[in-house]
Amino acid sequence: MAEAFIVGAVRTPVGTKKGALAGAHPADMGAHVLSSVVERSGVDPAAVEDVVMGCVSQVGPQALDLARTAWLSAGLPETTPGVTIDRQCGSSQQAAHFAAQGVMSGTQDLVIASGVENMGMVPMGANVGFALENGLPLFGQGWSDRYGDQEISQFRGAQLMCEKWGYKRAELEQYALESHQRAAAAQDAGHFDAQIAPYLGVTRDEGVRPDTTLEKMAGLDPLREGWELTPAVASQVSVGAGAVLIASERAVKEHDLTPLARIVQLSLVGDDPVYMLTAPIPATRAALRKAGLGIGDIDVAEVNEAFAPVPLAWMEEIGADPATTNPNGGAIALGHPLGATGSVLLTKLVHELRRSGGRYGLQTMCEGGGQANTTIIESV
């Protein structure tokens, strides 16, 4: 099987839903990261064979195959096609998997995996509005026969995780506080500078709260009475985009590109859709097993902080080192622009491995429907 290499990885700053990026058209934001990854890698854009873009709420400004409109909005060659995909929160991580698989199969040599989501302009759930407005069920009869009429949501799933693993509010808040502290320290140390392509005058992630405290968190109401969850221990509603250029060994030589990392393993599993957020645990086990690695071989892990119990349970079950898990903070501090987060996390992972001198990196995230992608890369 052919090797696949990451030869470029860039992201916008992650903005808040009412911040400086909230008015940015998703196609223009996507255009920015696409042109940035092409420019930084030095590749001829006409050689790019496809753009695979993740986006969850594909409605309004995020409709009409955003991958294609973003590429054209960037003024890049009309000969490169694009496709937009939805695997919920893992959409752009799946975009990276599809891009890498195209290269590893030998059918493609240069593919960009990207993701875009402006949750300030297109609210979460906007793409299910037609069903709700017209009294149509979101799930078919077969689903109802199998799972009944119980609530299916990420919020309930996170609370179910708290109950299963015994996490209490104080432990969740302590984790959230550390996420902000790590992100603030990384910002101050310039750890994100090389990976960010400033946009609309914004150079830093907007959601980090270096001055937050446990006392401030304690004053927030729970998401639902009797629950352990509050807004402080959940990912932020965000705006952002990321892009990763994946190349074959042949393309690396032909275009004189500089590999940043090698794709080692791509895994995907499904788990309980009611719990919804637990799949990173079996997905990580599957990826490590197939790669012939142990968790002790992983120098940096990016585990999406959809809610604090997700990385907490993952670390507990996998036996991962908290020091190397989300070392520069996660979505609780930095934000979670849904379809863009996979490419943002992969960009963070590539750059942190190179900055820290680590060898292996692992990325995983929970996804709607009880799914998870896991990607393992090796810095080169």
Describe this structure in words.
- This protein has 380 residues and is α/β, with parallel strands linked by helices.
- Among the domains are: 4-124 and 236-255, 3-Layer(aba) Sandwich (Peroxisomal Thiolase, Chain A, domain 1), CATH 3.40.47; 264-379, Peroxisomal Thiolase, Chain A, domain 1, CATH 3.40.47.10.
- The chain is 36% helix and 19% strand.
- It is built from 13 helices and 10 strands.
- The chain has helices at residues 26-41, 66-73, 91-104, 129-133, 141-147, 154-165, 169-189, 214-218, 249-254, 280-291, 309-318, 331-334, 341-356, and strands spanning 4-11, 15-16, 50-54, 82-85, 110-118, 238-248, 261-270, 298-303, 360-367, 371-379.
- Strands 1, 2, 3, 4, 5, 6, 7, 8, 9 and 10 form a 10-stranded mixed β-sheet that branches.
- Strand 9 and strand 10 form a beta hairpin.
- Helix 10 (280-291) runs parallel beside helix 11 (309-318).
- The longest helix has 21 residues, at 169-189.
- The chain is globular, with a radius of gyration of 19 Å.
What Rg, in angstroms, do the CA atoms define?
A: 19 Å
CATH architecture of one domain: 3-Layer(aba) Sandwich
Q: How many beta-strand elements?
A: 10
Order of helices and strands: EEHEHEHEHHHHHEHEHEHHHEE
Report the CATH superfamily of one domain. Answer: Thiolase/Chalcone synthase
* Spans where pLDDT lies below 50 across 5 or more residues: none
What is the structure about, briefly put?
The protein is 36% helix and 19% strand. With 380 residues, the protein is α/β, with parallel strands linked by helices. Strands 1, 2, 3, 4, 5, 6, 7, 8, 9 and 10 form a ten-stranded mixed sheet that branches.
